[in-house]
Amino acid sequence: MIESVNAKALNDFLSILPKRNHIRLGILLPSLPDAANAIKAAVKQEWIVPVLLGNKKDQELFSYLSGVDAESITAENALQALEIAINEEKIQALLRGEAGVHNLFATLLRMPSFRIGWISQVALLHLNSRTFLLSDAAVTLLPTLEQKVKIVENAIRVARVIGFDPPKVALLAAVETISTDIPVGMHDAILAKMSERGQFGNALLEGPLALDLAISEDAAKKKKVKSPVAGNANVLIAPNLEVGNGLYKALITLAGAASASVVVGGSIPIALPSRSDSIEAFINSILLTSILS
Amino acid sequence: MPPLRTLDEVRSFAIRIAEHSGRLKVAVPAANDDDVIGALKEAAIEGFIEAILIGPKSDIQSLTEQVDFPKDRYEIIHETDVKAAANLACKLAQNGTAQLIMKGNLPTGTLLKAVLTKEYGLRTGRILSHVAVLSIPRLPRLLGITDGGMLPAPDEITRPQVVENAVQVFHALGIQKPKVALLSATDDVVPGVPVTRDLAAFAKGAERGAIKNAIVDGPLAFDSAVWAPITGRLLFRSPVAGAADIVVVGSFEAGNIIVKALYLLADAGMAGVICGAKVPVALVSRSDTAQNKMYSLALATVVAAYADGRIGA
Question: What is the C-alpha separation between B146 and B182, in angstroms, rounded?
Fold first, then answer.
């Protein structure tokens, strides 16, 4: 099922990481055939036990689409079933469904049993023999300084689990200069100082950094930026959701990047491939979720 | 004229314009810069421009000699003061001696201030904004991204002007009714999120005629805007979705970072031009490749020829 070179490389990268098998993956009715096929593949690999969240009709449709017999948690609608599943700890991870991400998050963020930490999305991308994380492309519109600290901490936690040692975090910006006119740059400067003080453990963090300085060793050399992160970042943090989402989508559509996307910080991780993602991204997202659960 | 689909086509078109109606003249204030002289020389050899180099004469002379700048493709006007050089470039553009301006070794602000000086007559009533035009192997058309260089974030006053500036560039590139996407993190209009409200209202206004000769829609996420295969998965219809020629970003970070991602990671060729004045202003950055510098000059030349009436509306 995995055809593209980048997706295969990402799958190889994830496949050697330790994970639990047979995790109970909550499923919101997938309208996309790719999602159903990815679930089927994940069941076959014994990564997951699917638990369908929805009403009777949803369950019939799911079994028709996927040909998989899933356990189910039944309620009037999928989001109610999701509440039950999380409150009663019946699932260990979740896969997004057709429902708009907005409704899904609105439901989850209302639930104290889910919202045990700050919620953020982290994408693992593979492109041109480079594997890196990008956050946040799905949750927080314009993070405050406090929220950005949490977004960075979540991304660092994922980076450690997938073996980025040490995580090299670049806080993306348009320019490197720090001025009081640009609040994002001020936040980044504060975060960089926190990192110098060891407040993010062994992770290396630098910002504000333009994208070329973050990922291109040539550019970092030319502009004489001395930082172990410059040119070598493996974790990219976007300044706002427009950038995070736009960059993520630009990389998967126009650069052909492979991705695995997951929402972390809640009581369970959520596989959150985007609708423009391929079946390969659904499979890799489920795999990453099972590694993190 | 058929739409131009790649930056190589833009370059060829710039050459054809010169063959057909003469080479355009570029006024370059503070031209004493090796990088700028190098880029101009390449474009002069390609045959689409002649340069009017304004600045300290002996410095410029030695730079042009170093790169073998063809002697019949440039003249030098001696002027050591950068402000005076910027003013002179604008006067040359105003009286028709030059059809475009290229930024030399002076602060962008100094040049743009001169461009906006009322008495030089280069103002159009619109603000100046930057339009990046990218040629991306995975996309069968040119993609414009604006504004990734000048404005912090468009608001309801500046957004229509940013759109019109970019639309004019695409008219010059032969796209008669460019499709314009207003970028957001989601396609949904979320009443609690002001930016999505603003974009929705603006798009509706554009549909009712506030923006002419373009099709505008938003809010749209990046994939919904540009990626044709996604249209089958969207639960709504949009005349722009999957086919945007121009993406209008909501923050200067978004423009800057997405444009950089496309040329660093998607093998995109890139050109940039400042629009909103009667003549375009070309600028190249030291970190641009030689090819992208050439593309920027070719783009500015085509936009200038369109503004000048040499190529049809």
Answer: 10
CATH code 3.40.50.10950 region(s) in chain B: 1-123+277-313
| Interface confidence (ipTM) of the complex | 0.92
User: Where along chain B do the CATH 3.40.718.10 domains lie?
Assistant: 133-271
Contact call for B256 and A275, based on CB within 8 A:
no
Please enumerate residues of B whose Cβ is less than 8 A from a Cβ of A. Answer: 136, 138-139, 148, 183-186, 188, 190, 193, 195, 221-223, 226-227, 229-230, 233-234, 249-258, 260-262, 264-266, 268, 287
B234 vs A contacts (CB less than 8 Å)? 275
What confidence tens digit (pLDDT) does each residue in A147-191 have?
Answer: 999 999 999 999 999 999 999 999 999 988 888 888 889 999 999
Per-residue pLDDT tens digits for A127-152:
989 999 999 999 999 999 999 999 99
Domain B133-271: CATH architecture, name and number where available: 3-Layer(aba) Sandwich (3.40)
| A138 chain-B contacts, CB cut-off 8 A | 185
Asked if A141 and B185 come within 8 Å (Cβ–Cβ), the reply is: yes
Q: What is the dihedral of CA B53, B57, B59, B63, to 10 degrees?
A: 40
Task: Specify the pairing of strand A93-95 against strand A168-172.
Answer: unpaired
Q: Rounded distance, CA B199 to CA B192, Å?
A: 13
The percentage of chain A sitting over the pLDDT mark of 70, rounded to a whole number, equals 97
Range list of β-strands (E), chain A: 23-28, 48-54, 71-74, 93-95, 120-127, 130-135, 168-172, 204-209, 235-237, 258-264, 270-271
Model pTM? 0.94
Q: CB atoms < 10 A from the CB of A175, how many?
A: 14
| Backbone dihedral angles phi then psi of residue B218, each to the nearest 5 degrees | 175, 165
Is residue A88 classed as helix, strand or coil in its secondary structure? coil
- The per-residue pLDDT for range B189-208, each reduced to its tens digit, is 988 888 899 999 999 999 99
| pLDDT for residue A229 | 96
Please name which of A93, A98, A51, A40 lies closest in space to residue A73, comparing C-alpha atoms. A51
CA distances for B175 relative to B124, B172, B200, B244, angstroms: 22, 7, 24, 11
**Which of B114, B118, B218, B121 shows the shortest CA–CA distance to B160?**
B218
Beta strand pairing status for A71-74 and A48-54?
Answer: parallel
CA dihedral A177, A180, A185, A189 (to 10 degrees): 90
- C-alpha B95/C-alpha A131 separation (Å) is 54
Residue B106 Cα distances to A256, B29, B45, B62, B297, angstroms: 39, 8, 25, 19, 18
**Domain spanning B1-123+277-313: CATH 3.40.50.10950:** yes
Tell me the C-alpha to C-alpha distance, in Å, between residue B122 and each of A124, A136, A210, B131, B143: 48, 42, 33, 18, 27
Q: Do residues B93 and B122 lie in contact, with contact meaning Cβ atoms separated by under 8 Å?
A: yes
